[in-house]
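Working notes for the structural subgroup meeting. M.R. asked for a predicted model of this chain before we commit to crystallization trials. I am recording the input and output together here so anyone reviewing the notebook later can reproduce the run.

Input as submitted:
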Amino acid sequence: MRSVSEFIASFKTILIICSVFVFTISNLQAQKYNFQQLRARVANSQSTNLAEVEVMDDWVSNQNFDGSWPDMTYGNIALTDALNNNHIHRLWHLAAACTRLDHIKYKDSGYKNAVKNGLQFWYDSKSNDANWWFNKIYFPQRLGEILIFMRAFDGFIPQTSSVGINEPEILALFSPTEMKDITSNSTGANAIDIALHYVYRGLLTENGQLLEDTRNKLETLLADNIKADMVYQDHGPQIMIASYGSVFSEGLLRLASYLADSPAAFDIKSESFSKVIRFIHDTQISSTRGPSWDFSTLGRGVSRYDALKASLDYLHILAETIDPENATSYLDALGRLNGKYPPDYNVRTFNKQYWISDYMQHARSGYLFTIRNTSTRTVESETGNGENLKANYFSYGANFMAIDGNEYTNIMPVWDWAMIPGTTFPYIETFPKRHTWGSNFGNTTFVGGVSNGTYGASVLSLDEANISAKKSWFLFDDEMVCLGAGIVDHSDTEVRTTINQAWMQHPSYYNERGKAIEELADLSPDVYLNSDLKYIRNGKFGYYFPNETKVKFTMQTKSGTWLAINKIEDSTKTETGNVFSLWVDHGENPDNASYSYIVVPNIDSNKKAQEYDMNALEIIENTTTIQAVYHKSLDLLQAIFYQAGTVEFQGMSVSVDRPCALLLDRGASVTVSNPSQTYSNVLVRIKKKGKTYAQVVELPTREHKEGASVTVNFKIP
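Returned structure, recorded in token form:
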């Protein structure tokens, strides 16, 4: 799969073009299409981010007489390690440069001839890559754009069959060739990408019917990969909001802008297209903080350099031409991504459990906290093509916690992949090889969460890599309470619950119980151990410990390479940086171990750290049967029932007759979900002041809403 950044082009030119359509009717075909205008949209939007002139000049001067390059391999090739420097890549840049009016190499004869000679050699060499993606997506797209660029020199590359290289010969290299095969490699991002070269073929051959057939084919499957919980999934039931989801969104909006105001235009008011818009507006934007993606949404792309950089330039198209009613939201998001606005600028306050995808987002103005889990219904973050080689623990309780958004930027080569933030696992240094391409399902069903839109609780019944545990997260305004119980492992390996592992923003300060003064902990090769820790703070996060816990932390300079986690990264350069790691040490072979800690954002001073009051929270129970927290200031109970049971607090009690996740807001509003998604109702009893109030809460069992939350009001006086 190509990198997301490769395909993010500037759309400002498209927007100008789309707003000033002038159609010239000169013949029967032109009464429907102005193909020259449509091709101009492609050329103007794509001929951006070009290589340096010195680099391109070097390509031209070193090109062989036959159009090949001496440093390139041809025939049956493997380009996986040369995505941004191969034969077609060079031709694309040369073609874009010599056809741009404002480029210094506009109309340069050396560039033009290099493109023609290079196309001739490519056609003659019949080169193919071992990876289907290059043959069906990369090569046809780039070749189509090269031909569209070169139309600036009418007849330079003949449009009909003739002696020497011509458009029909290049178009004959496009694969697949039948409309039905658009979906031969999935219905999502890959289908959009394959459809794009059908559009290029239609624009070059001036075949309006082909454009309309392509549009019609896409409209039948437009939103297939966007599930009812508004998560984009690809390669099986796998979260791909940022990776394939971004390629899908960018590609579709690009197509929509190319074909706008033509008979092949998409119906942007249709149910399917509206679902795509909602996915971008509600889910994609919410998966970013500051300039970064939540690393949980990137699939195997998380192991690539700069993968966390979230551009989303295509939001301009939505703001200006497709969904102007929400323009402010799109432009605010772009401002946060490009640094024009601070990370907290107009951030939406919400909590959402994505019940199909085992994923929860919790956002406030000051931070983003997410939880990525995996059940028997979903699959782990994948490996494939030699990418994401150490992500064995990456999808079982992973927490992305960000304030500025740069907390994890490009940390992956120096990350200790046995210590993913939020996870509980044996500490290992060698990672077993996993099955590829979205085939690694979880082992448990009681995985999910409950949300009332503002607050939420998430649960993972863990049974993976020979370890079992009950893990839960309770999310409020100013803190996230993290509980674990029943931790059992017999691997003779130290088991750790990793609280966080991020770039070390500042020296750390910690405070022990009974002491009024913080102590400083700075870079050191040593491991800090403290069983009487009240809190520790690093950067803008504070971590509080309501119970005596064997806490360890390090602040060390770490080193690593991208190549160690991603075999297609061509850099063997050693990356270094200062990393803060914080974890609970459960020792070897724990039997019914537990933990409790509180993550508190925006604790960046001694004053704030001392003022935070853990007494506002009551951890009612942390066992293998119930995990529950009551927030006194909010008058909010959050509870995970692993079996039928009762929680007592503040002179009242809540009982359920089945396993569930539950919120009780101000003693009356009850929100319930069924994480296992196996039954249709839960009987809830609330006892208060000697009176019992009971309701059967009916849960969704159809329309792909199993596991979604339901809120009822008990009307308790």
